[in-house]
Amino acid sequence: MTLDTGLEHKFARFGDGLTVSDEAVIEGYASLFGQTDQGGDCVEQGAYCASLKSLGHRGQRVKMLWQHDPAQPIGVWDEVREDSKGLWVKGRLLESTQRGREAAALIQAGAIDGLSIGYRTKRARKTDKGQRLLTELELWEVSLVTFPMLPSARVAAKGSFLELEDTWRQIAEVLTGAQLEMARR
């Protein structure tokens, strides 16, 4: 018998070349704004803000699970935040647990390459393209999974190219804003 918790799941692919650092630290995007996943859902920027704020006020964290199984926590997310690109996560696989060691080995071997968020939809609306635009979500967990639904989101090991990529994206946003301002004059 399966217990229906009402939770939905949204998947994201790690990306190419993922490795796990000696400390088993992983980081990257669990969800990307404005991109439609294979289920026809698109998350709007700001959709996680209220949930993350509420968790912080209660002193709780988003859980790191194995394949959405609440009986199999495999690590901790030390940082979960929204930025202009999506929902960014950074955490540690707990190699003191059997499943944590297995997850690290599977990531290093390329057998696991996805993240998936577990959430409840608080607010959503249909777009004229027939998509479901998710405007407010109650985030419960981010899992390591085998089959992701949003191939463009990625996770990388600590100290990887994602920090540099984020810096270049921020520089590009500033330059684009400056160009628009100059065009108005």
From TrEMBL:
SUPFAM superfamilies: Herpes virus serine proteinase, assemblin. One of its GO terms (biological process) is proteolysis. Keywords: Hydrolase, Protease, Viral release from host cell. Residues 22-158 form the Prohead serine protease domain. It comes from the Bacteria. InterPro entries: Peptidase_S78_dom (IPR054613), Prohead_protease (IPR006433). One of its GO terms (molecular function) is peptidase activity. NCBIfam families: proheadase_HK97. This is HK97 family phage prohead protease. It comes from Falsiruegeria litorea. The lineage of its organism: Bacteria, Pseudomonadati, Pseudomonadota, Alphaproteobacteria, Rhodobacterales.
